[in-house]
Predict the structure.
Amino acid sequence: MHSPVAYLLMNELVMVQRSEHPSALRVPLLENGDRLTRVEFERRYEAHPEIKKAELLNGRVLIPSRTGTTAHGESTASLGLLLGTYAAESRMLLVTSNSTLRIDEDNEPQPDLILRIDADGCLQSRMFPGLRIDVPALLAGDDRKALATLRSSLEVGAHRSLLARLDAAD
């Protein structure tokens, strides 16, 4: 059994259908500006499927307004194309769209695009075979480890083969 429910979303009155399941009726709606833990945020979000996009940023709920289809959509599509191309040329990268990202107890954004480093965190280029960059070491400020990974990648056969092809092209 469904009944229409009205609620205010970013200064607009929205009519929705809501399940009358007893557990759904007891779970409060997510409200813009609510201060919640990630666990409570997820509980409310899952209980109210009529809310299509909500984020938790620094412990506060953000329910973004609808975006225009022209400027925002076009720029997101263009950036997605660029990131997708970059990820296709670099091993260990993954691009996702409108995916929830659990960061910590106070942050669960749902960005338009995410460029993720997969597996061991090292970037491995397809354009320059053998070349590996240790991103976790760079982010930790461990220059010695980052350089050691880079130097070891320059010693592999795939990189030497690339250098030989480049020398032959000269």
Summary: Residues 2-62 form one domain. The chain has six helices and nine strands.
